[in-house]
Design brief:
alpha/beta; 12 strands
Length: 289
C-alpha cells in the first residue's frame, strides 16, 4: 500500500508546483507585462458602396483609455499619442471611456489633464470622439468640454462632415447605450447626401439598431474581456450581454462593426491575451485577391 501511495503523492506535489508556476506566470504577464504593452494591428475591410475616391482611407481606432489604471498612466498616454501622430492614418476615432471610475490600484486622472496630452495629436490630424459610461459617471459635460478645448471633435448624437485625403464623408457619433440618450435618428438626421458614413459609439450592443446608411460602425467598451485564453475565449464575457461583440470585426445583414479591444483596464488591473491595441483600419472599395 505504501509503495502505491508514493507515486500518487509525488504526482500531487508536482501538479501543485506546476499550478503555482502557472499562476505566477499568469499574474506577472497579466498584471505587469501585458498592461504595459501597446500593439498596433492592421485590418482591411471591404465596405458596401464605398466610393473609389475613399478607397484605401486609413483611420486609427482607440477606445477605453482609462488613463490612470495600473501601468497605464500619463507616460503611456504620451507613448500612445506619439504613435498616433507618427501613423500614416488620415484621422483618429476614439470610442469612449477616457477616465476611470475605479480600478484596483489605479489613480483617477481628470479629463482636463488627459486632454492636454492629446494636443500634439489634434494638432496633426482630425480626432473624432464619443463619450463612454465611465466618462458620464465622472461628469460627461466636463469630459466633453475638456476634450473639445484640446481640439477633439466630440459627437454625441451628432454628425460632422469631413474631408480626409480627398474623401468626402460623414462621421456620426451616437451616445452611450447605458448613460447617454443615444438618439440614433437624431445623430443621423444631418446626413442628407450620398457621402459614406463612419459611425462611432461606445457600446457595441447598439450595432443592431444602427441604420444600413453607416458603412462601418466603430465601438469599444468590452476590452475584449481583458482576459482571453486560446481556444476558450474571454470567460469574463460568457453569458453576458456585453459578450455578443467581444472584439474585432463583425458582419450582420450586410452591416459591419469593428470593436476595439481598448487600451486600459477597468475593475481589475489585468490584461491577458488581449493586449492594449491601436487598431489601424484600411477601408477599401474592394479587397485585393
Amino acid at each position: 500500500m505504501a509503495k502505491t501511495a508514493r507515486p500518487w503523492r509525488w504526482r500531487m506535489r508536482w501538479s501543485a508546483r506546476i499550478l503555482a508556476v502557472l499562476v505566477v506566470v499568469f499574474l506577472a504577464w497579466g498584471c505587469v507585462w501585458e498592461p504595459r504593452s501597446l500593439v498596433s494591428r492592421d485590418y482591411a475591410f471591404q465596405l458596401p458602396a464605398w466610393p473609389a475616391e475613399c478607397d484605401g482611407l486609413r483611420v486609427d481606432v482607440i477606445a477605453d483609455l482609462h488613463t490612470g489604471s495600473p501601468h497605464n498612466g500619463l507616460d503611456k498616454l504620451d507613448t500612445l499619442v506619439q504613435r498616433l501622430v507618427e501613423s500614416d492614418s488620415q484621422a483618429v476615432l476614439m470610442a469612449g471611456d477616457y477616465v476611470i471610475l475605479s480600478v484596483f490600484l489605479g489613480t483617477y486622472i481628470p479629463a482636463d489633464v488627459i486632454a492636454e496630452h492629446l494636443r500634439p495629436l489634434t494638432a496633426r490630424k482630425p480626432v473624432y470622439a464619443v463619450l463612454g459610461n465611465h466618462d458620464w459617471w465622472k461628469d460627461g459635460a466636463r469630459v466633453r468640454a475638456a476634450f473639445e478645448s484640446a481640439g477633439v471633435t466630440v459627437l454625441e448624437d451628432q454628425a460632422a462632415r469631413a474631408r480626409l485625403a480627398g474623401c468626402d464623408l460623414w462621421v456620426v457619433g451616437v451616445g452611450d447605450l447605458w448613460e447617454a440618450p443615444h438618439d440614433i435618428q437624431r445623430a443621423f438626421a444631418p446626413v442628407d447626401d450620398d457621402r459614406p458614413v463612419l459611425a462611432v459609439t461606445h457600446n457595441p450592443n447598439l450595432f443592431p439598431e444602427m441604420p444600413a446608411r453607416a458603412a462601418l460602425v466603430v465601438a469599444g467598451h468590452t476590452h475584449g474581456g481583458q482576459i482571453a485564453f486560446p481556444g476558450i475565449g474571454a470567460p469574463g464575457l460568457w453569458g453576458k450581454v456585453d459578450g455578443r461583440y467581444p472584439k474585432g470585426h463583425f458582419i450582420e445583414d450586410g452591416r459591419q462593426l469593428f470593436v476595439s479591444p481598448g487600451i486600459g483596464t477597468s475593475i481589475l488591473p489585468i490584461r491577458f491575451g488581449v493586449p492594449p491595441e491601436i487598431s489601424r483600419l484600411t477601408l477599401k472599395a474592394r479587397l485585393e485577391q
